[in-house]
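Per reviewer request, we include the raw input and output of the structure prediction for the construct analysed in the revised manuscript.
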Amino acid sequence: MSDPVTGFTGLPGAVAVSHLCVYDWPAADGVSGGTPHLHLTCSEAYVVTGGRGAVQTLTASGYEVTPLVPGTVAWFTPGTIHRLVNEDDLRITVLMQNNGLPEAGDAVLTLPPEYLNDPETYAAATVIPADVSEEERARVARARRDLALEGYRALRAADGPEPLAAFHRAAAALVRPRLAEWRERWRRGAEAAASATGDQLDRLERGDTSHLGDAVVRAEQPSAYGKFGMCGRLDVYKGTV
């Protein structure tokens, strides 16, 4: 159901929200945490609600570590490879630009190059089956995390910018078949939200307040709890994914 005031569904500005408990699985380097990946069109923000940890980031400008403690708000733009580190029960509310795009494939894990050659090979290495036990889903999620860490460590150790640029090219090629679908999601979401604001400004300029009479209030509880995500267990909302 679309909002009569804005004409689109979901949270204000077509932002997606989820609650994240970051994985506490240790990796080969002794660090516990999530799966390194990047987004191609979506900025992402963390509002830290509990525990302690960090986010490791890798961009063309280099490698950084941002500490995360309760009250921290951290965010990054598309193209930022990020790895969440769980030092002590790290819990985060995640805000994601372009409602629904990350779940439609706007995230590419830092798998080794041989897994990035085509969408079928990539999907076989990253999909978590829905028709298996929770124990098996956890095993698959952890295995893909560890595989992505192999590629991530190689990118961090690379000499010069070309390996990272090559990963960017491979990621873009993987998602190219889905761009028409993404564009339609963007039009129904973020573009519609921005257009609605422009329309409201035009109305107010004319002294027309009729849209204020169409105000609505909504509330939702999570539609799913404890889903295996890239970075941890997720509580998600139906209207924002």
